[in-house]
Design a protein that fits this description.
Distance between the termini: 35 Å
Helix content: 25-40%
Number of strands: 18
Largest sheet: 4 strands, antiparallel
Strand order of the largest sheet: 1-2-3-18
Oligomer: single chain
Strand content: 15-25%
Number of domains: 2
Length: about 375
């Protein structure tokens, strides 16, 4: 009987492993962010063995998630022993962060950490409802990273959940660092504003089909956001293109449209030094042809001297602010006219601020930019 019991457990574990392979309606491939791109996000594949379910307890790796019907609750830090009925001690969820400045892993309370993330990622002068939306998006991103990071990601983070490198995860600055940089008198009120935005959304995350969402965001959209499929090659049901408000208020946004100009030698040198080799012997005016746009109106591909290159790769090579650009040859130079800033996927930060100015609350903002999601407090996360 003992052997039958063991066999049953093994079969059950295998069944869970096989059946639970999808997150948010489809696997998200392990897509790393572009080095040097300060707002591209790394999407992580959900490991198939991370979740099992027993009654109302869900176990994600070394994190425990307990369903709870109550709306208001505190997060708890998970130690060696966890009793779901024991709530005498006030605790909180902790997140481990690899600090690229000190090359050390620090462990900090998630809500405290989020204050530094929101302060770094969004102008604190923005509307309060926009800051709240940013707080929930950032918290969702952190929770997703904590639950679903691959071994490769953790190795890059020296075993931590996340890092404070803006090119890879999320930027972060502590209160002390910001005071030292800008002066405490200037920072104090702004930090309190951000802290209140984080605190007033405590415990709230974005979920899709009851799973934490990878809530990526960017600075400025054009007429609409971008689909994750167009950027990273994988469809994500809640990261699809939606209209955004920046185009109607572009005069209010600094550097909404920017221009980059390269003479023929610079244009050719940047391409060839980045591995794009073609026959540049023809007239310069004939180098660029067959510009194709994707479903959101951004550049999909361009033919340069008979060879095809993606808009995303062009953005990398020429350090453009987005793939929403026009490329023209005029006055013996190649001119990029670029709209917006960032990969364009998920919430637009400036768009969120415009929506907040129009009277929308943070929940309405998030439900607009992340299609088909819910804002949830239905889970407790423990470590």
């Amino acid at each position: 009987m003992r052997y039958l019991g063991i066999m049953f457990i093994l079969l059950f574990a295998f069944a869970v492993f096989v059946t639970f392979t999808v997150i948010a309606g489809g696997d998200i491939e392990n897509i790393l962010s572009i080095a040097g791109d300060e707002d591209d996000e790394g999407l992580l594949i959900k490991e198939t063995e991370t979740k099992t379910k027993t009654n109302d307890i869900q176990v994600f790796k070394n994190y425990i998630v307990k369903e709870n019907e109550l709306i208001d609750f505190d997060y708890y830090e998970f130690s060696e022993y966890y009793d779901p009925d024991d709530s005498d001690e006030e605790k909180q969820i902790m997140i481990s962060v690899f600090d690229i400045k000190t090359n050390e892993v620090m462990t900090v309370g998630l809500e405290e950490y989020l204050c530094g993330v929101v302060f770094s990622e969004m102008p604190s002068s923005f509307e309060t409802e926009a800051l709240k939306a940013q707080a929930v998006a950032a918290r969702s991103y952190c929770i997703y990273k904590m639950l679903y990071s691959t071994d490769k990601n953790r190795e890059e983070h020296h075993g931590a959940d996340i890092c404070n490198d803006y090119r890879h995860c999320k930027d972060h600055i502590s209160y002390e660092e910001s005071c030292e940089k800008y002066g405490e008198e200037y920072i104090k009120l702004l930090w309190e504003k951000v802290k209140n935005a984080v605190g007033s959304t405590k415990n709230e995350i974005i979920v899709y089909e009851s799973e934490p969402a990878i809530a990526v965001f960017h600075a400025i959209s054009g007429k609409g956001t971008e689909s994750a499929e167009n950027v990273w090659g994988n469809p994500v049901p809640y990261l699809v293109s939606v209209p955004s408000e920046e185009e109607n208020s572009k005069s209010e946004i600094k550097n909404y449209i920017t221009e980059s100009i390269f003479d023929a030698n610079e244009f050719k040198k940047l391409l060839t030094s980045n591995g794009f080799h073609a026959d540049f012997s023809h007239a310069e005016s004939s180098w660029v042809n067959n510009i194709k746009f994707n479903s959101s109106g951004r550049i999909d591909t361009v033919d340069i001297c008979g060879r095809t290159i993606t808009g995303r790769r062009i953005r990398e090579i020429f350090s453009l602010r987005s793939t929403d650009f026009k490329l023209e040859y005029k006055n013996h130079a190649f001119v990029f006219t670029v709209t917006g800033y960032g990969h364009g996927v998920g919430m637009s930060q400036y768009g969120a601020n415009l929506m907040a100015k129009d009277g929308k609350n943070y929940t309405e903002i998030l439900l607009w930019y992340y299609t088909g999601v819910e804002i949830s407090r239905a889970y407790k996360f423990f470590r």
